[in-house]
Write a structure and sequence with these properties.
By secondary structure, the protein is an alpha+beta fold. It has a domain of 138 residues: Chitinase A, domain 3. It has 10 helices and 8 strands. Strands 1-2-5-8-3-4 form a 6-stranded antiparallel sheet. Strands 6-7 form a two-stranded antiparallel sheet. A hairpin with a 2-residue loop joins strand 6 and strand 7. The longest helix has 23 residues. GO terms for molecular function: peptidyl-prolyl cis-trans isomerase activity. InterPro entries: FKBP4/5/8-like, PPIase_dom_sf, PPIase_FKBP_dom, TPR-like_helical_dom_sf. This is peptidylprolyl isomerase.
C-alpha cells in the first residue's frame, strides 16, 4: 500500500513509499539485520528518472535509467536526491522521489541516449525517481573479491554516465570515480588473495581489466578536457601496467598531435610506439595508425613551410 508524500528537504525533495514488504522485513529482523537503509550500507538499486513538474506524473521524458547499481549510501557517488531517499527507505521497498534541480541535476542540461532515442533534460529541471529495487547487500570483501568488483563496476558505470551525459559540469566527479576505481583494482590485483589463488583466476582477469579500463578512462577524460599534460601522465601510468595497450597508445599519439607543447621528437616517438604495437592482423588498428601517421606528416610539413 502506497504512503503519502513526505518532505525530506522541504518542498525540494519529496518521497512516497510504494509498498511495505513486511515478509522481507520479518526475515531480516529474524536474522538480526536491521531493515533500515543507513549511510554506509551497500544497496543494490534499480531506478529510472523522468522529467516532470508534477510529482504524480510518471510518464515524463526519460533522462536516466540504471539497473543493478551497487552503491554505498552517503559516499557522494550518486545524485543527492537518490542518496537521501535511500536513507528513508527500508530494505526491499520501492518508492518514488520527486526532486527539484537542487538535489537532482542542478542548473545544467543532461543528454541521455537509449537505443535510437535521445533526450536533453533542460537546466534547472524537476524530476521523478522511480526506485524499483533497493536491496541491502552484505560486504563480503574479506572473503573474496566479488563485492569489491561489483562496487567498482558500478562506480565505472556511474562515471561513464557522467562523462557521456553531464559533460563538462560533472567532470571532476567522474574523474574521482575513475581514480578510485583504478586505485581499488590496483590494490586488489597486487593483494594477497590473488597471490594465493593465482593470476589465472577469472576474477583476477576481471580486476586487471577494470584497472586498465579505469586508467584509460582517466586518460580519455583529460584528453577531452584538453588537459594534455595530465593525459600524458595518465597514459604513462597505464603503460607501466600494460606496455602494449593499443587504446592508450592511440590516445597518447592523438594527444601528442593535439598538444601545442609537444616537440616533434615526442610526437614522432608516440606515433612510432603506436605503430609498433599494431598487430596488422586487425585492419581497423592498421588504418587508425596509418591515418595518424599521415596526419602527422602533413602537420610537420605545414609547420616547416
Amino acid at each position: 500500500m502506497a504512503s503519502e508524500w513526505i518532505e525530506l528537504r522541504g518542498q525540494d525533495l519529496l518521497l512516497k513509499i510504494c509498498d511495505q514488504p513486511l515478509q522481507n522485513q520479518k526475515l531480516l529482523e529474524s536474522s538480526g539485520d536491521s531493515p533500515e537503509i543507513k549511510a554506509g550500507d551497500a544497496v543494490l538499486v534499480d531506478f529510472t528518472v523522468h522529467q516532470t513538474n508534477d510529482k504524480d506524473n510518471t510518464d515524463g521524458p526519460l533522462c536516466q535509467k540504471a539497473t543493478s547499481w551497487l552503491v554505498v549510501v552517503g559516499q557522494n557517488e550518486i545524485a543527492d536526491a537518490l542518496d537521501i531517499a535511500l536513507t528513508h527507505m527500508l530494505n526491499h521497498q520501492t518508492a518514488r522521489a520527486w526532486s527539484t534541480a537542487k538535489y537532482a541535476y542542478g542548473p545544467h542540461p543532461r543528454t541521455y541516449s537509449w537505443g535510437n532515442d535521445k533526450y536533453t533534460l533542460p537546466p534547472n529541471s524537476s524530476v521523478l525517481y522511480q526506485i524499483t529495487r533497493a536491496m541491502k547487500v552484505k560486504d563480503t570483501s574479506r572473503l573474496n573479491p566479488y563485492f569489491t568488483l561489483q562496487k567498482t563496476n558500478t562506480r565505472k558505470m556511474i562515471a561513464n554516465d557522467l562523462y557521456l551525459c553531464e559533460w563538462p559540469q560533472r567532470k571532476d566527479r567522474a574523474l574521482r570515480l575513475y581514480e578510485k576505481s583504478a586505485k581499488d583494482m590496483e590494490v586488489l590485483v597486487d593483494g594477497t588473495y590473488f597471490q594465493q589463488v593465482g593470476t589465472d583466476h577469472p576474477q583476477y582477469k576481471e580486476a586487471r581489466q577494470l584497472m586498465i579500463d579505469s586508467y584509460n578512462n582517466i586518460l580519455a577524460l583529460h584528453m577531452r578536457a584538453k588537459q594534455y599534460g595530465l593525459a600524458k601522465q595518465a597514459g604513462a601510468a597505464l603503460l607501466k601496467k600494460d606496455p602494449r595497450n593499443l587504446k592508450a597508445l592511440l590516445r597518447l599519439a592523438k594527444v601528442a598531435m593535439m598538444d601545442p607543447k609537444t616537440s616533434l621528437d615526442e610526437a614522432d616517438s608516440a606515433i612510432q610506439s603506436l605503430e609498433n604495437a599494431v598487430t596488422y592482423k586487425n585492419r581497423d588498428e592498421e588504418e587508425e595508425a596509418s591515418k595518424l601517421r599521415a596526419a602527422w606528416k602533413k602537420k610537420k610539413a605545414n609547420a616547416s613551410s
